[in-house]
Specification:
380 residues, alpha+beta, conserved putative lor/sdh protein from methanococcus maripaludis s2 fold, Helix Hairpins, six-stranded antiparallel beta barrel, 24 strands
Length: 380
Amino acid sequence: MRRLLAVAAIVAAGFGMSACERKVSAQDHGGASGTGPVPTAVRPEMDANNFKIDHPDRFPLATAGEHVAAPELNVTGVVNPDVSRQVPVPSLATGRVVEIDARLGDEVKKGQLLFKVHSQDIAGAYSNYRQAIKNEELTKIQLERAKLLYEHGAVPKSALEIAQNAEDDNVIVVETTKENLTVLGVDPDHPSGIVNVYAPVGGVITDQEITNQAGVQALTPPNPFTISDMSHVWIVCDVWENNMSQVRSGEFADIHLAAYPNRVLKGRISNILPIVDPNIRTAKVRIEVENPGLMRLGMFVTATFHGLSSEKRTTVPAAAILHLHDREWVYTPLGNGHFRRQEVVAGNMLPGNMQEVTSGLKPGDQVIADALVFQNTVEQ
């Protein structure tokens, strides 16, 4: 009986093992019998910029070409007013501002009223004018009397000459005091305590230093207004010391506005300041530009200086350059499915969706034509 039970146990165990083997075998064969596409296996190597893929033929290659162009230097700059076209507008009298007829940023015409000042200077100037008139009237009467007495022999000729000289002096005083009132903008025949200040030139108000009811001093800074002619402006750029050889006074530069990326303006280098900042090792370069009405003071621009000699540059399809982490890369084949991610410095865009590479590649090198597709595959 014991012998029969042992045989039965061995047979049952054998059937159990056979069932397990059949189950495992069915699972293995079921996974291999799927109909989906075979994925591209990517195996990073020890170097984080090296990759190996199983199907490299899926990624077409492009051969770097050659492009001849003049060397360029790109620097940043800021729009500034042309100081030779700036006109300060001082107050003509000391007093208090009672009316402001223009504001910062307004475009004004020559002769336009800017502000009014209530001033005690008018009272003093008008008092001097009236006194001068009275004195001139008196000396005129004395001159007429001296002439009459001299004709009758009652006074010597010297007395007539003294009276004539006094009259001439008072005529000059009258003219001077009247001119003082005119400079203050006051009609001598209709005096007023209000002084009107007008724009001496046309332009844009680029500085305002007064508010209503503020006190001002006659012909003393700070000037209440500054008017700038914005038809021409200055671009002031910072150029590194080791790039100074690429900038020459009198040459022209291209001006690219950050606010209008599709517009390119021309400017002439008018001055290279003879001082280098000891902290950042840059020199100021001034470019004069005719303003078509787009540029405003304080705008950021990019100035491009062109070299005189031509140089050869590498070109690749623009899609071959990958912009990643504020840097630019291309993928180059190493053979046997191995690829390397290589950093480059990209240049200008060219016709036909091509782009310059100023550093990192040379003509004849091969790169993956579409770096973004390859990068997406690597990241999966």
